[in-house]
Amino acid sequence: MGNVPLNGEWKIHWQNWNPKEDLSPNEFTNVPGHWTNLSGEKYPTGFATLSLKILVAENTKNLYLQNGVTRNAFEIAVDGETIYQSGTIGENYDKEVPHLKIQTVALPKALNNQINLVVKISCFHYHICGIATPYHLGSHSGINRSFLEAITRDVFVLASLFTLAFFHLILYLFWRDEKTHVFFAAVCFIAAIRLFTTGETRFIYNYLPLGFYETIVKFNGISFVLLYVSFVLYVREIYNAKEYRFVYRANFIIASLLFFALPLDILTFSKFLGIHLILSLFTLFGILYPIIDGVILKKPGSKFFLFSVIATMALFSLDILTEFAKKGTAYLAQYGFLVFGLSQALFIADRMIENFKNKERLKQEKENAEAKVNFKTSFLSTMSHEIRTPMNGILGMTQILQQTDLTEEQKEYLNLIQFSGDNLLLLVNDILDLTKLESGQFELHLEPVALPKFLNDCINLFKSQSDPNRLLISLELVNTPPNFLMTDQRRFAQILTNLLSNAVKFTEKGTITVSVEFIPLLDGKVRLAISVKDTGIGIPEDRMGILFQPFSQIHSHLTEKTVGTGLGLAITKKLIEELGGSISVQSVYGRGSNFFFQFDSQVPSDSFRPESSTNQGERPTKTEWDSKLADKYPIKILIADDDPINQKVSDLFLKKLGFTALQADNGEKTLDMVRSEQPDLVFMDVQMPDMDGITVTKCIRQSKTISKQPVIIALTANVLEEEKQRCLSAGMDDFMTKPLLLHDLDFMIRKWAKKDLTPSNH
């Protein structure tokens, strides 16, 4: 009718290969299960004969027997004739050669309608002995069909787990930041590998030759540990919080214990493996803590995840029961793996969908934030341009007016105008600097800086502005500085002058000391450590927290000497951080302050040579101007600007320097005058009607009818770095920002006249 599992009580003859039926007492053991006697007492490792009398009907066709998992070596005999053996049975450890193999064999024809089945078993290489899974009796086709069904089930589970592993590994290659994929792939892959040794058909045992039994047992233990660790890593990746760390660490410690047993003999190792399985199961229950906590906190998918993990706990329980030969249901464990894999795949898919939604939302928020930043930057750039244009007229005409005959009262009024204009310009510059730093549009421009001269220039600038009888400003070099340092000179100067300016501002009398130390580092680098220490009024302790906050003024109640934007220290801190350094402050209210900052910089290899600083070349100063400059450099200058006030200011400035300037108020006229007048130098306004300065410059550079290419200098109220790069990329040679100052104009003419007016972008 079909296959019959030979489950139930079998006779057992302990330590006896050839029992006498009439002399041996009747003892029974349950198959499948650990071999025991009638009282339920377990037999130790050893050897025994199990026998079963099977009654069959008359005219029964040929029957076949399929053995179950029998540890560790066995022989099957029917009516005294050996029909199959796996390994070599023996009466001690040395004589036994263990081997597990599931095989279907034909039984001899039944005599007197009964089959006397005898199984001789020796078990010295494993701590659990007996028949672990059922023996089946049936027809050849029925046995084969049953075996093929078992193989199909294992192959189905194996293919499903490999597919899940491969799919999530591919997902990880695309989303490297989502490590749940790689850990889940590891769980599925190792579970599939374990199927070869713990599956219903025991693939690996059927095809390995004798002598590999111990290796497979240890491989089985190692694969369990790897599966265990992968599962814990997977859970940790999903529920990764500090309060759960002890749970994960406990599991990692328990998992790693098995590796210490690997050098032991196989019997001791198998005993340790059994204890390790039970200990692992109890420790794994701790994994429920973060998952249940996630359910309580209503984390997405936490209930579904809890269900699948509980199913996994049942899976491990079945593995342990099978390992101890209590139940013959190893194939159910494999389905448990499959259920876990599929449920977790759904859970991960749900998380991915949620992540996609979050990423889309974050992307939208990022775009909105960037749009706001771009709008703010654009707005500030436009406002800067619009403010600087009239400021050019105010400050320019103020400079011109200061050179006329004025009464003392008029000079006082004019100085107030100059002071207010300078402070308004300072505010515009500070706001733009802070905006660029906060929006990430700030870029450093590294260049070799002549360090000793740079430091002395900064100190001398403030010395010249203060009364030496009341305030002493000094520079202290702790050790010999390099002659040159690779850094952003403009930003370095901004940092140092901001700190010195504050020190001078809040120190009526006493001393200001700038101390500089150079600490050599590896790879040609040096750490620059600078402190600016003063004996001024200091900073109240309760105000230290807002010291580097924008628009915060610690001593806003003081006189106009301390006027400022409240942005200086905020910008200074951000600039130092952009240089990769840090800043700190120590202060005692009423006794002074000490600002300390440091950053690392590259030093050219010859920077410590004395001769490297002897020939630094001449450079024109930017703090004075020459009324006879035109006599020294008789060049033709064209001013292209659409604003009549700016034209007037530029014209008056050039007259002060001895030049008579050509004027053009739009792009077309500028092109015509370059062709007809062939000027040497063109100060080009970037924003002009009909054709802007960028377009005019490109036309000049690309024109074949202009025989003499002039030097073109951008003249714009837009001070953003992108604007400068845009001008230089268009073919301009230099860049000046409004408001235009007389000494800046003097400097620029000298700079390019000394170069024989050869345009750099010709």
Automatic annotation (TrEMBL):
Response regulatory domain residues: 636-753
Modified-residue entries (4-aspartylphosphate), positions: D685
EC number(s) stated in the UniProt entry for this protein: 2.7.13.3
Organism of origin: Leptospira bourretii
Assembly with partners or alone: At low DSF concentrations, interacts with RpfF.
One function term, GO molecular function aspect: ATP binding
Lineage of origin: Bacteria, Pseudomonadati, Spirochaetota, Spirochaetia, Leptospirales
Transmembrane segments: 155-175, 182-204, 216-234, 246-266, 272-292, 304-325, 331-349
Keywords: ATP-binding, Kinase, Membrane, Nucleotide-binding, Phosphoprotein, Transferase, Transmembrane, Transmembrane helix, Two-component regulatory system
Keyword Nucleotide-binding listed: yes
Catalyzed reactions: ATP + protein L-histidine = ADP + protein N-phospho-L-histidine
PROSITE patterns the UniProt entry points to: HIS_KIN, RESPONSE_REGULATORY
Keyword NAD annotated: no
The protein's name: Sensory/regulatory protein RpfC
One Pfam family, short name: HATPase_c
Residue stretches making up the Histidine kinase domain: 382-603
